[in-house]
Specification:
Pfam family, one: Exo_endo_phos2
Shape: elongated
Protein name: inositol-polyphosphate 5-phosphatase
Structural class: alpha+beta
Strand order of the largest sheet: 1-2-3-9-8
Largest sheet: 5 strands, mixed
Strand content: 25-35%
EC number: 3.1.3.56
Number of strands: 9
Helix content: 10-25%
Family: Belongs to the inositol 1,4,5-trisphosphate 5-phosphatase type I family.
GO molecular function: inositol-polyphosphate 5-phosphatase activity
């Protein structure tokens, strides 16, 4: 949905976006970038092209909503399991991968990472919260294809747009159906960022 606003004599477009999610963690692990990331890239490029097609006078714009951006799953899994024994389990009736299990080589061979279609369970999930998940930002790559057109403020909060556990005794534990990610975003054209930061009004960081 696209709406146009005039605030203090400044025209702005606000565009709400909801892109496709990753239907399977296993398929997301097949390639880097994943097929899902490629689909989101095409959809977002379509939205940006529609905004810029000349149908209306161009003004700075903001894109906001659930982009369903995911961390580069294959690269992340390779990093998390670098020192682990990796076992790929396939279905008996086909060659289709059913689960990926990564076990620690010591520590009594505890399961470090367990991945299925709707399961992403990492033993040391605190890494997604420590220092606001800063160490994982290098895997947050989906916006890079659009840096010539859009940008965003610095991310200084942990992956928080994914459901937490429904167990009230574990309020900071993520649900283990998908890898935690920064899905909900506010992106903007470079001209919109200039509006925010002009007259000394910028410099604020995104946070919760």
């Amino acid at each position: 949905m696209r709406t146009r606003w005039i605030i203090h004599n400044q025209g702005l477009d606000l565009v709400n976006v909801h892109l496709f999610h990753d239907a399977s963690n296993l398929i997301a692990c097949n390639s880097s970038p994943s097929v899902y990331s490629g689909n989101r890239q095409k959809a977002l490029r379509y939205v940006i092209n529609r905004i810029s097609d000349g149908s209306y006078a161009p003004v700075p714009f903001f894109l906001f909503g659930d982009f369903n951006f995911r961390l580069d799953t294959l690269s992340l899994v390779e990093s998390l399991s670098r020192s682990a024994d990796v076992q790929t389990v396939k279905k008996d009736s086909s060659n289709e991968v059913e689960k990926i299990i990564c076990e620690e080589k010591d520590n009594d061979h505890k399961v470090l990472l367990h991945i299925e279609t709707k399961l992403f369970a990492y033993l040391h999930e605190a890494v997604f919260r420590e220092d606001n998940g800063r160490a994982l930002l290098k895997y947050d790559k989906e916006i890079t294809a659009f840096q010539d057109v859009i940008t965003e403020e610095d991310i200084r909060f942990p992956p928080s747009s994914y459901p937490y556990s429904e167990d009230y005794n574990k309020p900071t534990q993520y649900m283990n159906t998908r890898c935690p990610s920064w899905c909900d975003r506010i992106l903007m054209s470079h001209s919109a960022r200039d509006v925010i930061h002009r007259d000394g009004g910028g410099g604020q960081q995104c946070g919760v």
